TrEMBL record:
UniProt protein name: peptidyl-tRNA hydrolase
Protein's GO biological process: translation
UniProt KW keywords: Hydrolase, Ribonucleoprotein, Ribosomal protein, RNA-binding, tRNA-binding
Keyword Ion transport: no
Length: 314
């Protein structure tokens, strides 16, 4: 609402009422007004760039924050200066930068340092973005929704069931939760599939997990689609991910859950089949099969491998 009384005393009285003194510049005249503190919080306390919509005397005005004053002790908003946006007049603003993806070097264990957090741009109001996303490369894109990615789909479903969210951490996306007295760590390595061992070893050490309590989940050509096979140990069976885990850990004495993807491909088309998308027929049953795999994983975690094998190895 517009304010007619100015000065420190008037501003102090407004703040006691839960209002914040504001000024609007850039139009035909400077407008002094006040706004509820709660209405300013989503605009001020956010990493994104926001355009404010101010309603004064029945008129809606779009504006951006130009200067903020905070209480030095309480860190609350004391005063806001806004600049009115005019449709065909460019403005200079700072927009947050967000990095998206996993660079190959990070996937191999390097650390990415983001030295620039904001970027100054000069643009029309209609072209002002909340955030600028910079793609830095994503090693996982080529496997998304392919048969080779079924292991990730299973752990994602398991995390969702337990309301755990994945975060990007060293060598992997990691989700953690506690259930039935146990701390569970799920990982999706950000390395290439045939270099999974480094991520597995690191997170086994980080979470203090013994080999017999670690379950590797993977696709298997030799098993019919959707069929589950739990084993306490075994050969890599030609799976490069398992081969690297074996080499990194120095043994193959750890449980694994193999999810059958079938072998419905022509001679010489094995790679294309494994890295290909699921067929329409497979997609009809895929969600149910993934749920079954999460149940098998939970059985392993909370009932033991022997019971899980009895229940799910059909």
């Amino acid at each position: 609402q517009p304010r007619t009384e100015l000065g420190k005393k008037a501003a102090k009285a407004l703040r006691k009422q839960g209002l914040v003194p504001c000024n609007l510049y850039g139009g035909k005249e400077t407008i002094n007004f006040s706004a509820p503190y709660t209405s300013l919080q989503p605009i001020v306390f956010t990493p994104a760039f926001k355009i404010a919509e101010i309603e004064l005397n029945g008129k809606k005005i779009k504006a951006i924050t130009k200067e903020l004053q905070f209480d030095p002790v309480k860190d609350t908003i004391k005063h806001v200066d806004f600049q009115e946006l005019v449709d065909e007049v460019k403005v200079k603003v700072e927009v947050p930068l967000k990095l998206n993806g996993v660079p190959a070097e990070v996937a191999m264990g390097a650390k990415l340092e983001q030295t620039m957090r904001k970027l100054k741009i000069f643009a029309l109001p209609k072209h002002l973005p909340e955030v600028i996303v910079v793609e830095v490369g994503d090693l996982l894109v080529e496997y998304v929704d392919t048969r080779h990615n079924i292991g990730f789909k299973i752990v994602e479903a398991l995390a969702a069931q337990h309301k755990a969210e994945f975060r990007l951490d060293k060598l992997a996306y990691v989700a953690q939760f506690r259930f039935k007295g146990k701390n569970i760590t799920l990982i999706k390595p950000t390395t290439y599939m045939n270099l999974s061992g480094k991520a597995v070893r690191y997170w086994m050490q980080e979470a203090n997990v013994k080999p017999e309590n670690m379950l590797a989940i993977l696709d298997d050509l030799a098993i019919p689609f959707g069929t589950i096979r739990l084993r306490p140990k075994g050969s890599d069976g030609g799976h490069n991910g398992l081969k690297d885990i074996d080499a990194t850990l120095g043994n193959n004495l750890y449980p694994r859950l193999r999810f059958g993807i079938g072998s419905n491909y022509h001679k010489g088309q094995q790679v294309n089949y494994v890295l290909g998308k699921w067929s329409p027929e497979e997609n009809k049953d895929l969600i149910d099969k993934i749920i079954l795999a999460t149940q098998a994983t939970e059985s392993f975690l909370f009932e033991g491998l022997g019971n899980a094998m009895t229940k799910f190895n059909k």
